[in-house]
Amino acid sequence: MEEKELAELVRDVVLRLLPATITNQSPEYAEKAYKYASRILSSRMTPSIAADEAAMAESIKRQLVLEGRSSDALAFADLYSKFSSKSGPGTISNKWSVLYLLKVISQDQSKDKLESRVRVSLSPSCIASASNGGLPAIFGNENSVKRDHYENSKFVTRDRERVSDREKVSSTGGVLLLSKDPENIRQAAFREFSVLLRDETEVSESALVKDIIYACQGIDGRYVRFDIESDGYVLPESIRVPRATRVLVMKLCELGWLFRKVRGYISDSMEKFPADEIGTVGQAFCAALHDELSDYYRLLAVLETQSLNPIPLVSESSSGNYLSLRRLSVWLTEPTTRMRLMAVLVDNSRVLRGGAMAGAIHVHAQHGDPLFQEFMVRLLRRVCSPLFEMVRTWVLEGELNDIYGEFFIVSQTVKAESLWRDRYQVNASMLPGFISEHLAQRILRTGKSINFLRVCCEDQDWAGAPLVGATTRRGELGYGETEALEALVIEAAKRIDKHLIDVMCKKFKFKEHCLAIKRYLLLGQGDFIQYLMDIVGPELSEPANTISSFKLAGLLESAIRASNAQYDDPDILDRLRVKMMPHGSGDRGWDVFSLEYNTRVPLDTVFTEFVMAKYLRIFNFLWKLRRVEHALIGAWKVMKPNCAISQLLSMDAGVKVRFVAILRRCQVLWDEMNHFVTNLQYYIMFEVLEVSWSCFLEEMEEAQDLDDLLAAHEKYLNSIVEKSLLGERSQHICKTLFVLFELILRFRSHADRLYERLHDLQAREGSKSRSRSKNERQRAGAWVGGRKAMSQVTGEFIRKMGEEMDGIADEYSLLLDGFIAQLPVQQHVDLKFLFFRLDFTEFYTRQQANASLKSLQARS
Hints:
Layout: H1 3-17, H2 20-25, H3 27-42, H4 53-66, H5 70-85, H6 95-117, H7 124-131, H8 142-158, H9 160-163, E1 169-172, E2 175-178, H10 185-200, H11 205-216, E3 225-227, E4 232-234, H12 243-252, H13 254-272, H14 275-307, H15 325-331, H16 333-349, H17 354-363, H18 370-383, H19 385-397, E5 409-411, H20 419-423, E6 424-426, H21 437-455, H22 482-507, H23 510-520, H24 526-540, H25 549-561, H26 570-575, E7 576-580, H27 589-592, E8 593-597, H28 609-645, H29 653-702, H30 706-723, H31 731-771, H32 774-778, H33 780-822, H34 831-838, H35 843-859
Antiparallel strand pairs: 1-2, 3-4, 5-6, 7-8
């Protein structure tokens, strides 16, 4: 309906309600009435009853029945059924308001008709009450008037003779009507009452009403003024007014005090403080408060217009639009409630900004009153609009438009490789209560993924696909629409995360690089590692400070070309390099040699410096294990062919027996060490590396976003560290293991010395037998003496070697028993497999039990 047509309809209703004499004789009055009605209808004043269309229709029918108008009630029911069934364009949507308006108009007309029909004289009891200063009840509903007239008629009947000289008695429609008495006793009583009120009151009620309206606007009146000391509007004690009137004035002036607080906050925020201290949310809050005050100003304008009408005396009956203190109290009840709420919000939000301010206001919206909730929702939609616009821009475009630091997502300047982990974070202090922490994390990850694609991956295809079924336009999100916000975030996150995973796995080959690290840094490429260890072994045996990194790099290239590693992707092989760790003067090349895998953006988001340090730690452990295995294999190559040769030596029988015994002791100790190293290596390569890799592949396929991918890789790496006894809780047993490695390497050195001496003896015997001539046979006696001396030297060597071999064996047995004893108490359950493999015959368990029993027997 057009505005012009609506105005004409309002004017028509006003003219129909006014008497015809007023309409014809005083068109100015009719125009004022129309303007007054327009101000009322354009305000936001609402009745204090619930908007229930069916209940309102039932109330109108019940009122018609009670008035004895049953036919009208039936007619109304028929008209209402037709009225409520109409729908569609061009019909009235707010039908409850129409019914409420008709009911109020009907009640006002009924009251005017009743007052014009009934003329009642005061009974003697009413006259006596008025003469004592009381105010009788003159008007009521029609039934109460009839009842009062009936009682008064009985009184008049008993004293008819006494009052017949002063009154005329008439009966109309069964109701006794009494005319005014000739002596005007009723008027005299009202005059006495008015004089009494004037004596007790120095200020008229109209003046107080005007001052209160001024106070409600923050303006000092003639009598009611703002007192700084008491921080409120006061009526001076020097002004004489009844106590009840003073209390009512002070109660009504509370609205002015609240208004000053709200208006002061708005003016201070918009004028005194800079924009960066207020922020966009604070500005929106001030704008919303200003709009609420605009409605408040319109109400005060209406009240100020009504205050111009004179207040009738107690002796006068009037239903005009005058404004008394009591009526003003009724008018200001709802505005006071709203203003009190706004003042509370102002106090709680004065030192807050951004999301913290929105969250503080949201707390007050948790209320059961529908009118209260409607007001708070209307306010919060304005306040939260900047925050929801920031969310929309962040999840759809990856832009953080937060120049005043109000958003719950904050950023800081970091390197590209730290963008995902460190650049963007959730600021919990700015997170409002209507956004859950889970949703905030999803919002964070969505915008972070866009920035990661844009900055680290240099990819722009993420913006190509439009969102399906999600709110994307500006202004479509708002407070109270949590489901729409979640739908937008979920849809945007699903699209961005899927694209990011595809880019990482297809364009940057994340899975292939993980496999390359497993093959080279975790020693999974067996032929390459074995060949590398063979060719760099002699070089690494030298002091670390004499080794050339360039030469080692060349040996690495040779190992690649000589193994199946040559068929790998050149980009992967180009990332594999030799690294020499920091070393001291006494370190050997074995102690400082390592391999490194160079990762670039965006892969360095996963393979950070901390992650690569863990890989380096695992590599050093596996490299030591391979070095020990390589040392045992080298010892076996020396021992096996010399076992038979040792039986052919022509030496002293006693020395020979001892030599054979120490060789056999060396063989048995080698078997024990080889059993330990072989089973340990099997456990590391299969139970640890392969099982962890298999689990990592499954989680990699199930990853929905980059966080899932990072979590899967971190779990994979931590699993290897814990199972390999490299974790924080396995430091003691790890130290024992490294001591065992050093002892095995010392055994290899001891075995090499032993078999080198054996080789020297064999070579010496061969050369002597070949160079022995006839003359030498003549000097056989001298040769026998030399042989005896050599046997003595060999015997001394064998004795020392035997003692050293026994020391190594005892130390190894003690360390191995301690290592095996610590395995069952380790935290990780997979270490039980290692314990089972090392002691599957329970040999070490029985050995420890026997040692404990002997210790107890020795103590006893």
